[in-house]
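Help wanted!
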Amino acid sequence: MAAWLQIVLGILGLLGASGGLYAVLTVPQQRRKIDADTTRIVADTVEDLLGSARDQISYLKTELTDTRQTVARLHRASNTLEQRLNGLINMIHDPYMTIDRLRVMVPQEVAVPNERHGG
Amino acid sequence: MSVTVRKGSRLYSLEQRNALEVFLLVFVILTGLVGLFRPLRDAVPEFLQILWHITLVLGGLTALVGMAWHEAVTGVLITRAGLIATGAMAYVYSVPIWVIGGGPYATAVVLGFGLAAHTRAWQISRQLEGKS
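Answered by r_m:
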């Protein structure tokens, strides 16, 4: 075998072997890089999940506030109606009440304010 | 011991101790040891033989140590290093085998071993990057 070919092959062989040696020596560094990448991916995933959860919580808080306001409005309306209903019952049971007087009074008493209900 | 790798949307367990791979590496180490103590006569230059057989022994041992490593990711990195060295040396050694008239069969076996070792090293790299 030609001498030059032996030299070339020797150099290539040394390069190959040193490449393997380099790969062994850099294992801790590669391991740290993989750990860092893994940590970054996990952190990004957690951040995404937290962001989504934050959005959901914010949306639910808004919904809860709206629902509370609606309940309070309905509660006030219910009280008003209850008071007016009691008034009407009292008027009906009034021994001096006549049907004509009642007809005159009731349309004014039962006029419900035009409140808009909704979320 | 296994490494979990992602392929698309699925997770697969990467077994480190493939029985065929372990057998081949043990065979490689034995071949290297025999070659160190009983070199071929008048064939491949002596320094190349020594380099080849030492690489076979050390590379094979490194790959086996990686397979037996207690921690999976570091283990496959060590295995990859061993395969890179033995694979590279196989390409180099296949040239003198061909030149001295070793024939296509012997050349193909050595060259094929190098290709297989580097393919496996490439697969490990891809799997660690989550690309396979």
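OP: Thanks! One thing I noticed: The mean pLDDT of chain B is 83.
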